[in-house]
Amino acid sequence: MDERKFYVVANWKAITGKENIKEMCKLLSISVLDDNTDVIVGCPFPYLQFVRQLLPERFYLAALNCYKECKGAYTTGEVSPVMLKDVGVSWVLLGHSDRRNVLNESDELVAEKAAYALSEGLSVIVCVGESYDDRSAGNTESTLANQLCSLNKHIKHWQNVMLVYEPVWALGSGKSARPHNAQSVLGFIRKWLENYVSKEMSDTVPLLYGGAVTSTNCKTLALQPDVDGFLVGNNSTKHDLLQIINTNINDEDKQSVDSGEYLSPYMDITDF
């Protein structure tokens, strides 16, 4: 199997103020960062072009949403992939738990937006994950499978897709899933890709973990064989981000965990 790249996606969410953004861009630009880690900066719409002008080309730029159409009804106030490409965006983050749970975006809508963004030449980062109720009821697998099946219904080619596992039951708690929790779910996703998409895509689609990633826990999380990087939220605008980017994980460092042996991720819900 070819070695997969390591990715860190910084989700700047609702960062405000050009001075704050200048400081973060300067910090990233002057810091010594691992050349083997691809860094994607997720930025709110109003600042995308501003950030693209400030960051060196080694940093990729992601929008935090887009719509499933370019023109026509229901597009007032929406942003299309064509607009994003015009200002130097190459990635878009879709299906984040904030949008699924607060704005009630359905699995179907997320999948339609992902497929359209891909058709217009953007790469997509799609978040999947289960709630506390889903997890405690033993529905982790079925919830993730439904989200993935919706994606597979609309996405024809998975080459430019990245998946992020967000344990919604841990978000906002300040606690991250333990490494074996993250590995268990990502191992399930990897196996699902093999069974329902292809072995090639199972081997090559990057799988990221997102959920209270810090400079303290990133090393042990990254040691898991199916963790190909992180989606970083609260720490994406702090110095912690630099240490997370510099996790410096090599394949030989990975723990000898058989990713094919799926450990039920809902067996230890209180074991963060």
UniProtKB/TrEMBL annotation:
Reaction(s) this enzyme catalyzes, per UniProt: D-glyceraldehyde 3-phosphate = dihydroxyacetone phosphate
Family: Belongs to the triosephosphate isomerase family.
Protein name: Triosephosphate isomerase
One example of a Gene Ontology biological process annotation: glyceraldehyde-3-phosphate biosynthetic process
Organism ancestry: Eukaryota, Metazoa, Ecdysozoa, Arthropoda, Hexapoda
Pfam families with a match to the protein in the record: TIM
Organism: Glossina pallidipes
Assigned EC number: 5.3.1.1
Gene Ontology, cellular component aspect: cytosol
Record key words, sorted: Gluconeogenesis, Glycolysis, Isomerase
Pathway: Carbohydrate degradation; glycolysis; D-glyceraldehyde 3-phosphate from glycerone phosphate: step 1/1; Carbohydrate biosynthesis; gluconeogenesis
GO MF entries: triose-phosphate isomerase activity
CDD domains from the UniProt entry: TIM
Top-rank EC class of the record's enzyme: isomerase
SUPFAM superfamilies: Triosephosphate isomerase (TIM)
Summary of subunit composition and partner proteins: Homodimer.
